[in-house]
Every structure is written in structure tokens, then in C-alpha cells.
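A quick aside before the break. I want you to see a complete sequence-to-structure record at least once, exactly as it would be stored in a machine-readable document. Don't worry about memorizing anything.
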Amino acid sequence: MNTAAKSARIKSPDADPAPALPKPNTARWGSEVQSSAEQGDLKRFAILRTAAELFNERGFYETSLNELAKRLNVTKPSLYLYFKNKDDILLQILNQATVEFKPAMDLAEESGLCGIEKLKIFVTQYTTAMTGVFAKCMVLSGLGPLEPSSRDQLTPTFRLLDTFVRRLLEEGIADGSITPCDTKMTTFTLFGAMHWLARWYRPDGELQPQKIAEQVFTIFENGLGKVRRP
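That is the input. The structure line, written in C-alpha cells, reads:
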């Protein structure tokens, strides 16, 4: 794994994630989105969001492009106007997920606070993002179904996320806000807790994303906070 990064920006040297797309009011396409050049991004987003929903419901391998086209109320050939194949659709879904994680890094870094407070900002923002359909697909589908070349495009970004959290832990240890710990194991455990959210979170549940994020961090803060001795 990489050593501590000097930059918190989610900027891969090998490939940039796809830019964030405008979010339409609906995940459907068909007659609900007008056919015009200006609506291209909305149609592309509709495909991605609906595909992510299907992958989350049925699994990547169990979902066919025919099913995706049927749910969108379009023909299968229409999908190929925007994506090369199912691999390309999953790749762009995961790209979209990484775009949604970028604010977590930026806000933490730009805060100028101590290590534990930066980590709190990151965990809160990242955990909230994990309740979205794209991040959920990232966890449930993962990188496994992708072609090797597609996985290679995403690997640097995921490594950078890992490196970023390790650096925050190291900063906190150095400034005294975090008790000394194994930064590798702590990072793995932290991401594991946040990613598990994608498997049990329900939008209609009693806990909202912000509250969940606060509780997740509180658990880690109690374990990471510097022990105050009398």
C-alpha cells in the first residue's frame, strides 16, 4: 500500500473519475425525459442510476441489459448509444461513487483542524455518501465483475482513499488528538464499518444518514481518543 500522501485531492495519476452528472428528478427515461441534445447527461444518469438499482436488487451477473432496457422503457440498442456494454455501465457507476466521496476528502483537508476532527469530517461525509445508490452498488457489486483494464482505472482512486485516511490517523497521532494505533488495521476496520452500511441501511429505516454517520464516528472516537488520566 502507498505511504502517507502529501495531497488530499482525489486526483488519480492514471485516470480521473467521470465528472459528476446532474441528478434528474427521476431515475426513469422513456417518455419522462425529453429527447434533445441538452438531455444527454440526464439520460446517461438515468441509465446509471437504474442499473445501480437493479444491480443492488438482483446482483450484477443476474441483471441483463434486456432487463435494464425494460425498466427504463427503452429498447436495448438505445443503451449502446451511451455505453459500450454492461462492464462500461458498472465502471461508470463506480466512477460516480468515487466522485461522491471527493467532498469527504476536500472538506476534511480544508478544515485545517487537528487529526481527529479531520477524521470526523471525513467519516461523516463518507458514511452519508454510503447511503446512496451508487456507493451501495460499489460495495455490493465491487470491482470483481469488471474487466482488468476497467479495474485498473479505479484502483488508484481506492488506494488514495486508503492513503488519505492513514495520513489523517498519522496526523492525529502526531498532534496528540489520536492515541497511537496501527494505522493500517484501523483504516481497514473503519472502511469495513462504513461499507457494511450499504448492506443494512434502508431509506425508510428509523435512522437517517447523518445520525448514522455521527454514531459510527462516536464508536471509533471512543476507541481512538486519547485517554485522559486523572
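Two observations worth writing down. Residues 1-20, 22-27 have pLDDT under 50 and may be disordered. The CA atoms of residues 58 and 148 lie 23 Å apart. We'll return to this after the break.
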